[in-house]
Every structure is written in structure tokens, then in C-alpha cells.
């Protein structure tokens, strides 16, 4: 595309009068070259945002200066347009797509009279029709195509979704394709614009191929059909020079039809393409120029590509006959068929008639056997593309396999002879090149691809004939592609081994409650072999690029195999925190899960499957966290016995690193898509934050306490006290010496609070977990203060998220209102300009975003507040205008405002109808403005963090307050969840409380578990004790139910009591006085319940407690 743009620049510059001797032109050229001097530095330093912003501001001021009325009559519009577009071509070649779109292509389009951004791209067709000057239409088409191409490649660079997995990415790409369609339609109006039509068609084909490769077939079909129509509607594009592009478009359309289960349309379109190629061949034969070898090669390549498409359906369609007699027959094996002479079947005869050379025939066999969008790990024969019966389809597939096996055996014999003689006479070319050259030698890579296909189709006979010989030849080949296919074949064989051994079951000893194990010893060994092979394969960059689907499906298959086995091992033990470390097989499964985490990170599996990756991290972190002992060990008297040792600290550090990796995946996923605060991924994000905060609080407890001075001792006990002090000092020294010298520093609780900054969500989690996991030295009043801090933080967040989020009505004011927040992450904030009616119906052409940290007394944003990337940069106004601030500090308060500019670069001012001119200074200096111009209104402070769901946080607070003995806070948190899911009856005939159907259907299951836990906690705290319990807790009459001001026994009937009238409590909040198998004694006071629950189990997320 860059070459075509350069050709356009040369052709257009010939029609423009030269003005290089005029002083205005010399001054303009000098300033333009000065601005573009930094482009070379920017190409080598892509991350230098300050240099990019300087270039952006310089170009903005340069065009404003020379488009003003002072230079309007001295520089011709054609000269300025040519310079703008040529500068855009230079920026496009340097991959500065945003600068090229905003300051060059887009700026020229906005200067046209018929430009209307609200109409999309339809205006370009009418503009070219009504334009009387060919140069103006040419400039407009160049700018429109260049602007679309720049926006597309800039979107790919900025968007972390290169595989088009999110719907908003596909919709944005389809919008760009519609713009290209309008541009190509306008180019066809003049035959002189054929090179612009070619440019538009080429870009359309490239984008459509990306959609087709990612499975978006229905979205790619219509643009490809339009591209084929454009190539046939322009006479210059019908020549031999562009035949290769036309054939590629034809084959891409046929591939779309095959994937959409329309083989008849694919064959008809391919035959139509063959007719076009034949007509062009006749014209070339009738022309005066002699046929060359290159032209003959181009025609043969086109005929071969379209002939393979025709054969793909004809080989099955030729058998579509009506059967009058049903006669069972015995199908011969492939070994028996290979003993006959070639051709043996109707399929092989058709191959001989259509394709010359074994390579071309093997290519046809591969394409006929290929199944579009097939799962790489799927088993069984491919689904037929026609309405043939099963027996006829099996006969055709066997004939194709027989022909492919015969051709592959011949070529394997050639490669074996060549390796024995050590003669490298056969060049390593692709199968298509060999087929075009009419060669009889099939490349080794294509043979390995055929073996992979036979493994996938479960063709044991073909594998027995080819597998050993193919692996032997491939093992001695130095070609990288051969090694890549070799690893994939071994991986498929390992997956098949796990599938074959997974069906066996054995019985584990367990008395009357014996269960069947999911795995055997053989299955476990094969599982470890698959994990190690897959782990090494995922580290290969070539495999990550070419075999990503196979690797991702293998990782998911491995996790689906390990997950039930881990759950099965958990179910054999009462204590679910130690089963995986009590056996060798359990430790091996833990190692497999660690390898799965690494492979997930390398392959980017969190993009298509964020919930699966989050579940993997949560299960493995729960296992690792359970290996660490309690941060505080308590003696019978209740006094602390020091801090955790080296093993606990290392395990917690590993758990922290694992959870941080899972949070990074979730952060990247949520940064690339705009989901709600209560979608499943946001729920998983909240679970990960809660688990990470819990681990950090435990790590802070491993910090050795400061040494306290001992009081003066009496002479009678001096000897004994000194001996105890010496022993305690020796134990402390031994423990400190065991810690590695280069151990990771652990932040204290004060450091954690400082790191949370202004993020109220993180502060609430830290306060509630500090109260629940607090050491015994913490007084009840201090725990209550921590819980109240968490409660106030959540209430403040609830008030902030309760603000109206709908789009406000347009306002009439001299300056723009505060921007509207679209998306927020810890390091970036995305805004859109608020609806605004400028004074005197002025048109806004550009917006600039400004912002600063919200600190101090005066937090008003000024034009000099552009210290972060994305601030102070011009963005074109329009319906899709987005302003983004990057590289922000997480958990920090910021304020933002926008400034609006006209198409001449004038800043909208405070005075009604007044525009202030920008001073044209050198880049790097602050843009000046007159007293009438001003920035817009400053918005409310915003925290740079992800928006997390509040309802799980209320559940965490309810559980932590219950564990810490804060009954009042626990009741308030439970009441908040109750109001979210339950409504009060409006009449006397209906029950007092009923569940909200809309809330239940739209709520993830994890949040429903939280709600049930809160109901149990509130029921236990507010219900009266049963009379049969001799150790009941006195009922607190001051507590209130979940809903309503009047006291009542609770919103739901109390659960049935256990033995002796003791109410059972779910999950981690166990109320039994003994965690073992001995007799269980009920607890009668909140303080006793707190001490017991602190020793039994920490409050964890629901996913860790419920299998």
C-alpha cells in the first residue's frame, strides 16, 4: 500500500505548479522538515510519548498557521493538500498511524465542503460525483483510503485483541470495511482511479482474511464478494498483472462458502472464476505480445487453485446417485487396495484427469479431506459437505486416504534415498510451489500434515503405514517446519494415550463409602508425560505462532482431565486442606497445575477463557495457601508463640506471585473489553483481590516483632528468667539465620495501606481481613474500629456508584462540560466528550484531554496539565471520539477536563461566541491562548482502578465481621445483601418476603452463594436460642432483622437444630468447638466464638469452601 501511495504522490505532484522559489513556500518547507526531523528518532524509540506528543502539537500548529487567512492567497490549496497527504504517507510508512489519521488524512477530509461525519462514508461517493476537478476527487479518495488504513492498523496496535475475540472489535472492523466499500465504489466512477480501487481492494482482502482466519466467516463473506466485483468492474484490474489477486479473492470466497456449509455455491463460484481465467487466456493469446513462461505460470497457478476447489465437491457429488438395490458389501482395507495398480478407484481417475503431477494430486487430496473449523483434538471422520449417505461417504474418504497414502509412500521413499546418499538435490519448497512446477515429489512438511490428519481422523491403518517412516525421515531433517510438525504429532499421540488410559477405574479403600478413582497409575504417568511435553512445546515461539489452536486445546484438555481428579482426591478426606500433599500422586497433580499456569500465561489463554484461568489460579492458590501454617501459634494460655518460619513465608510468597499473575490476566482482559461490574469476570476479579489481600495480611504477620525491653527482675527469679530469655533469644537467632539473605521483602500492614492509596475497595478488604486475621494482642475495640473503617469505605463506594450513568442532555455553554467516563483501569482512564452545544452553532473539530492529580486545595485543571501520555493530544471529534489518559499511577485520584477546537485550531473561549486564536510557537512549548479562551469544566475526582462488584465485598465483610466478633457490622452487611435479592410483599395475601426473580436470573452463582452465607449468618445472630440447648447464647434484643424496622425472629425460618439443639453453620464459618472427630460443644458467647473460629479456619472465598 505504501508503494501505491508513493506512486499517487508522484503522479499528483506533476499536476501541481512548482512554488519552491517563493519565500512562503521555502518557509513552509523549512518548518515542515523541522517537524519531521523527530520522526527518525521516534521510529527507534516507540515508547517515547513525549517525543510523539511534541510532533503531534507541532504538526497541529503548522497546519493552523498556513491555513489561516494570512497565507490563504499565497499558498494554493492544491499545494497544501499535496503536502498534507505526502506527510501522511510518510507517517504511515513510519507506522505512526494515529498521527497520519488525525493531522493529515483526517484533517484534509474535514476541510472538504461535502464532508459530513454523521453520514459515515457515503458522502465520498456523492462528493466524487459532483466534483468537477479530478485532482480534488483524487485527493479526497487518497485521504479517505489512507485514513481508513491508518485507523485500522492503529486499532490493531492499541487494541489487545489481535484475534478478534470480542464483539466490539468485530463491529469496529466491519465499520472500516464499509468505509472501504464506499471508497472503492467512488473509485470505479473514473477509470483513472483504478490504482486507488486496487489499493482499496487489497486492504479489504487483507482485513477479510484476518476475519476468516479467526472464524468470523459470515462477517468476511460480504466484503470479499464486493472485492471480487470491484476487480471485475475496472478494466485495468482485469489484466494479467492483477490476476493473482483476483484468484486469491475467488478462493477466499469459496472457502467462506465451504465453512458456511454451502458447497454448491462454492463450486459455482469457482467454475465462474475458471471461466474468467479462460477468457483472459484467450485475450492474451489473441494479443500481439508473445506468451512468456511467467504468464503461463500465472495461468497454471490460477487454474490449479480453482480446480482444487471444484474437485473438493465434485469428488463427492459424482457419487450422488439414486440406489435401487441395497446390497451389503465388505469394504477392502487400504493395504489390500495398495496392492493394485494406480488408478484404482473413480477418485484416483478423477485426480489423474484434473491434475498433472503427484504434488498437485496430493494437494487436491489434502483439500478434499480437510474439514473447516475442526477442533484440533476432535476424533472421527470429517463431516461430509454433501447429502451423501454414510456408506458412500466412507467409501469416498477411504479412496482419498488410499490415494494420499500411495502418493506419500512414493515421496517418503524418495526422501529416504536422498538422506542415505546425503544428496540435497530436492529444494525445500511448499506444496503449492511443487504443484505449480508439476513436480512428483511431495514436500516432507505436507506428508507430516497428512499424518496429523490421519491421527485426527482415527485412521489406524494409515498411521501404521506412514507414522514410523515419516517420523524417521523427519527426525533427520534440519527444516524448522518439519520439527514443528514432529512435535505436534508427538503431542497428539500423548493426548490419545491419556484418552485411552482414562477409561480404566480402580476402587480405593475407604470402608463402606469407597469411591472409584478417576485415574490409574498408567493414566497418571501418561498425564505427566503429556504435561511435560506440552510445557516444553509451549515455550517454542514457532509453535506459539503456527499451532496456537492445538496448544490451547491441549491445555484445556489437560485441565479438564486434572480438575476432576483433584476434586476426587479432595473428597476422600475430611480435612480438605491436606489431601494433595499426603501422596506422591497429589504432589504430581500440584506440579501439573503449576505447569498449566505457565502455559496459560505463554499462550494468552486468558483472552478466550478468563473464567477457566481464574478458576485454575484460585484452586492452585488455595492449595498453596493451605500448606502454610498459621501466622500465629497459640499456647493454651492464649499467648503468642512468635511468627511463622521460612517454609510458611516462602509458600505465601509463591501464593502471592501466583495470585498477582492471575490478577494481571484479569486486568488485561477487562482492559480490552467493556463489561459490567457484576459480570462473571468482574466477580472473579473480586475473588482474586480478596485472596491476594488475605495472603498479604498473612505475610505481614511473618515480620518479626520488634524487641521489647525486659522489665527489671527480682533477685530470686533472676537465674530462671535469664535462662528463659537466653533460650528464647537462641530460638530467635536460629529462625532468623534460616531465612535466606536475599529473601523477598514483605510489606507491613502500614505499607499495604499506603499502597491502597485512594482505592476504597482495597482499603475495605485490607481492614476487614486485618480484623479477622488479627493477632491476639489486638483488642476488641481495635477490631471494631477496623470493621467500621471497612464499612464506611464500602458505604462511600456504594454512594459513588449510585450516581446516574445515563447520557446527559446537551448543554449550551461557552466551554465544554466535564468528560464522561467510559472505561477505567489501574493505569488508564477512557473518556468521551459530553453532549454539548457550542455557541453560535460552531462546529467542534478536535478535542484535547487535560488532567492532573487531585491533591491540594485548588484541583482545577489547566491547559498546562498534560504530564501523562494521551493528554494534550488532538483527537478528531465525532460519534466515536474517545479520549484516553495512559500510564497513570494505580489507586490515585485524578481530575480531568477537555478543551474544544475548531477546524482552524481556535480554542473555544468563556465569552459567548468568542474563539481565541492559538499562538503558533515552536513545539515543546505550551500553547498560548488569549484571555477569552479557556479549558472546559473540571470533572469530579476519579480513582484509577478497576470497577469491582460491591455485593461480594459486603459478603466478605459479613463473614469477616462474624469471625472477628463484630455482630453489628455483620448484620449491616447481611442486610445490604438481603435488600438486593429480597422484596417485601405489597398485600396481605402474599408472603412477607419473596425473592426477586430478575435479581436471581441475572446474578452469577458465586454471588448467590454469598447471599446464602449472609442469610445463615444473620439467622444465627438474630434468631432466639432453642430451649433444649443448655449452653445457648442470650438473645440480643437490640439486633434487628434483615428488613424492616421492627424486631422479629428473622426473615426466614431458623434452620433445624442438630443434636442438642445446636444450629449448624455452613462452610468456613464452623461453630463447632472442636475441628476433629470428637464431641462437639456449642459456643455461648461472641468472644468464645471468635477465639474458636480464629483457630479453626480463616475466612475464605466461597469458591474455596464449596466444591
Mean pLDDT: 77
| Biggest sheet descriptor | 4 strands, antiparallel
| C-alpha end-to-end distance | 56 Å
Q: Which range does the strand content fall in?
A: under 5%
Total of DSSP H or I helical runs spanning 4+ residues? 38
Q: Level of helix content?
A: 55-70%
Shape field: globular
Structural class: mainly alpha
Read across the widest sheet, the strand sequence of neighbours is 6-5-8-11
List the uncertain runs. Answer: 8-17, 503-519, 571-579, 630-645, 911-932, 1029-1107
How would you characterize this protein structure?
The chain is mainly alpha-helical and 1107 residues long. 56% of the residues lie in helices and 4% in strands. The protein contains 38 helices and 13 strands. It has a 4-stranded antiparallel β-sheet with strand order 6-5-8-11, with no helix packed on it. Residues 8-17, 503-519, 571-579, 630-645, 911-932 and 1029-1107 have low confidence and may be disordered. This is Cilia- and flagella-associated protein 54.
Amino acid at each position: 500500500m505504501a508503494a501505491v501511495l508513493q506512486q499517487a504522490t508522484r503522479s499528483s505532484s506533476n499536476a501541481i505548479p512548482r512554488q519552491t522559489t517563493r519565500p512562503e513556500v521555502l518557509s513552509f518547507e523549512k518548518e515542515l522538515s523541522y517537524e519531521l526531523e523527530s520522526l527518525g528518532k521516534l521510529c527507534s524509540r516507540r515508547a517515547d510519548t513525549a517525543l510523539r506528543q511534541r510532533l503531534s502539537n507541532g504538526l497541529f500548529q503548522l497546519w493552523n498557521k498556513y491555513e489561516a487567512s494570512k497565507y490563504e492567497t499565497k499558498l494554493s490549496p492544491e499545494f497544501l493538500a499535496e503536502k498534507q497527504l505526502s506527510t501522511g504517507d510518510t507517517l504511515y510508512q513510519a507506522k505512526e498511524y494515529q498521527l497520519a489519521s488525525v493531522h493529515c488524512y483526517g484533517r484534509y477530509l474535514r476541510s472538504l465542503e461535502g464532508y459530513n461525519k454523521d453520514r459515515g462514508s457515503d458522502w465520498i461517493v456523492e462528493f466524487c460525483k459532483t466534483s468537477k476537478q479530478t485532482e480534488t476527487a483524487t485527493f479526497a479518495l487518497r485521504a479517505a483510503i489512507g485514513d481508513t488504513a491508518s485507523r485500522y492498523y492503529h486499532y490493531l496496535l492499541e487494541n489487545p485483541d489481535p484475534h478478534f475475540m470480542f464483539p466490539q472489535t468485530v463491529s469496529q472492523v466491519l465499520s472500516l470495511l464499509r468505509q472501504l466499500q464506499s471508497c472503492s465504489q467512488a473509485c470505479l466512477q473514473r477509470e483513472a482511479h483504478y490504482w486507488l480501487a486496487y489499493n482499496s481492494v487489497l486492504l479489504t482482502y487483507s482485513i477479510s482474511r484476518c476475519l476468516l482466519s479467526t472464524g468470523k466467516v459470515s462477517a468476511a463473506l460480504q466484503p470479499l464478494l464486493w472485492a471480487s466485483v470491484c476487480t471485475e468492474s475496472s478494466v485495468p484490474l482485469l489484466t494479467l498483472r492483477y490476476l493473482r489477486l483476483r484468484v486469491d479473492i475467488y478462493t477466499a470466497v469459496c472457502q467462506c462458502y465451504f465453512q458456511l456449509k454451502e458447497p454448491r455455491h462454492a463450486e459455482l463460484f469457482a467454475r465462474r472464476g475458471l471461466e474468467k481465467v479462460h477468457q483472459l487466456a484467450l485475450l492474451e493469446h489473441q494479443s500481439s505480445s508473445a506468451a512468456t513462461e511467467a504468464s503461463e505460470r500465472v495461468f497454471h497457478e490460477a487454474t490449479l487453485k480453482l480446480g482444487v476447489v471444484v474437485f473438493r465437491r465434485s469428488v463427492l457429488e459424482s457419487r450422488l446417485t439414486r440406489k435401487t438395490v441395497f446390497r451389503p458389501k465388505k469394504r477392502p482395507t487400504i493395504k489390500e487396495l495398495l496392492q493394485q495398480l494406480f488408478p484404482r478407484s473413480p477418485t484416483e481417475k478423477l485426480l489423474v484427469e484434473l491434475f498433472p503431477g503427484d504434488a498437485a494430486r496430493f494437494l487436491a487430496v489434502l483439500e478434499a479431506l480437510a474439514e473447516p473449523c475442526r477442533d484440533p483434538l476432535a476424533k472421527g471422520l470429517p463431516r461430509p459437505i454433501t447429502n451423501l449417505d454414510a456408506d458412500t461417504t466412507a467409501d469416498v474418504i477411504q479412496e482419498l486416504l488410499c490415494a494420499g497414502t500411495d502418493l506419500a509412500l512414493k515421496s517418503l521413499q524418495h526422501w529416504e534415498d536422498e538422506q542415505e546418499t546425503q544428496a540435497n538435490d530436492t529444494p525445500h519448497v511448499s506444496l503449492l510451489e511443487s504443484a505449480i512446477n508439476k513436480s512428483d515429489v511431495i514436500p516432507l512438511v505436507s506428508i507430516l500434515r497428512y499424518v496429523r490428519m490421519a491421527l485426527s481422523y482415527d485412521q489406524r491403518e494409515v498411521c501404521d503405514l506412514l507414522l514410523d517412516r515419516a517420523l524417521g525421515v523427519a527426525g533427520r531433517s534440519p527444516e524448522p517446519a518439519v520439527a514443528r510438525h514432529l512435535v505436534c504429532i508427538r503431542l497428539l499421540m500423548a493426548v490419545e494415550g491419556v484418552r485411552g488410559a482414562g477409561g480404566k477405574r480402580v476402587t480405593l479403600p475407604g470402608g463402606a463409602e469407597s469411591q472409584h478413582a478417576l485415574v490409574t497409575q498408567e493414566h497418571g504417568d501418561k498425564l505427566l508425560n503429556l504435561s511435560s511435553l506440552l510445557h516444553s512445546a509451549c515455550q517454542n515461539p514457532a509453535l506459539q505462532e503456527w499451532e496456537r489452536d492445538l496448544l490451547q486445546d491441549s491445555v484445556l484438555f489437560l485441565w479438564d482431565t486434572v480438575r476432576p481428579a483433584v476434586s476426587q482426591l479432595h473428597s476422600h478426606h475430611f480435612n480438605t486442606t491436606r489431601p494433595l500433599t499426603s501422596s506422591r500422586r497429589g504432589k504430581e497433580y500440584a506440579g501439573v497445575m503449576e505447569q498449566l499456569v505457565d502455559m496459560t500465561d505463554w499462550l494468552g489463554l486468558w483472552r478466550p477463557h478468563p473464567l477457566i484461568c481464574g478458576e485454575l489460579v484460585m484452586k492452585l492458590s488455595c492449595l498453596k495457601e493451605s500448606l502454610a501454617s498459621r501466622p500465629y501459634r497459640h499456647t493454651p494460655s492464649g499467648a503468642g508463640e512468635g511468627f511463622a518460619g521460612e517454609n510458611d513465608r516462602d509458600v505465601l510468597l509463591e501464593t502471592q506471585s501466583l495470585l498477582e499473575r492471575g490478577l494481571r490476566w484479569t486486568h488485561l482482559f477487562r482492559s480490552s473489553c467493556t463489561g459490567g461490574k457484576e459480570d462473571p469476570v468482574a466477580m472473579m476479579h473480586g475473588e482474586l483481590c480478596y485472596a491476594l489481600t488475605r495472603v498479604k495480611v498473612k505475610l505481614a504477620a511473618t515480620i518479626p516483632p520488634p524487641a521489647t525491653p525486659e522489665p527489671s527482675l527480682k533477685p530470686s527469679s533472676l537465674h530462671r528468667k535469664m535462662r528463659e530469655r537466653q533460650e528464647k533469644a537462641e530460638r530467635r537467632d536460629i529462625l532468623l539465620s534460616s531465612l535466606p539473605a536475599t529473601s523477598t521483602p514483605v510489606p507491613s500492614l502500614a505499607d499495604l495501606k499506603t499502597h491502597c492509596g485512594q482505592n476504597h475497595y482495597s482499603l475495605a478488604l485490607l481492614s476487614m481481613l486485618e480484623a479477622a486475621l488479627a493477632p491476639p494482642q489486638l483488642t476488641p475495640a481495635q477490631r471494631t474500629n477496623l470493621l467500621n473503617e471497612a464499612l464506611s469505605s464500602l458505604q462511600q463506594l456504594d454512594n459513588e456508584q449510585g450516581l446516574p450513568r445515563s447520557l446527559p442532555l446537551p448543554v449550551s455553554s461557552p466551554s465544554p462540560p466535564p468528560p464522561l467516563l467510559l472505561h477505567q483501569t489501574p493505569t488508564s482512564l477512557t473518556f468521551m466528550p459530553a453532549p454539548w452545544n457550542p455557541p453560535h452553532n460552531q462546529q467542534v473539530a478536535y478535542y484535547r484531554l487535560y488532567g492532573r492529580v487531585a491533591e491540594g486545595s485548588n484541583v482545577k485543571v489547566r491547559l498546562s496539565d498534560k504530564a501523562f501520555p494521551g493528554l494534550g493530544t488532538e483527537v478528531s471529534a465525532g460519534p466515536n471520539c474517545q479520549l484516553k489518559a495512559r500510564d497513570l499511577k494505580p489507586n490515585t485520584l485524578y481530575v480531568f477536563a477537555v478543551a474544544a477546537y475548531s477546524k482552524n485550531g481556535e480554542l473555544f473561549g468563556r465569552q459567548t461566541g468568542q474563539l481565541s486564536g492559538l499562538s503558533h510557537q515552536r513545539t515543546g512549548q505550551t500553547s498560548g491562548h488569549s484571555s477569552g479562551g479557556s479549558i472546559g469544566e473540571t470533572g469530579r475526582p476519579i480513582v484509577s482502578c478497576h470497577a469491582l462488584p460491591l455485593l461480594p465485598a459486603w459478603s466478605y465483610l459479613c463473614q469477616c465481621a462474624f469471625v472477628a466478633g463484630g455482630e453489628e457490622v455483620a448484620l449491616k452487611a447481611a442486610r445490604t445483601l438481603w435488600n438486593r435479592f429480597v422484596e417485601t410483599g405489597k398485600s396481605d395475601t402474599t408472603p412477607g418476603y419473596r425473592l426477586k426473580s430478575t435479581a436471581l436470573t441475572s446474578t452469577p452463582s458465586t454471588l448467590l452463594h454469598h447471599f446464602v452465607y449472609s442469610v445463615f449468618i444473620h439467622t444465627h445472630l438474630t434468631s432466639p436460642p432453642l430451649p433444649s440447648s443448655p449452653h445457648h447464647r442470650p438473645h440480643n434484643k437490640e439486633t434487628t432483622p434483615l428488613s424492616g424496622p421492627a424486631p422479629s425472629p428473622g426473615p426466614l425460618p431458623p434452620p433445624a437444630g442438630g443434636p442438642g439443639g445446636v444450629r449448624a453453620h455452613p462452610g468456613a464459618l464452623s461453630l463447632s468447638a472442636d475441628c476433629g472427630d470428637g464431641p462437639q460443644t456449642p459456643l455461648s458467647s461472641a468472644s468464645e466464638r471468635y477465639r474458636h473460629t480464629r483457630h479453626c479456619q480463616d475466612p475464605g472465598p466461597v469458591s474455596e469452601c464449596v466444591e
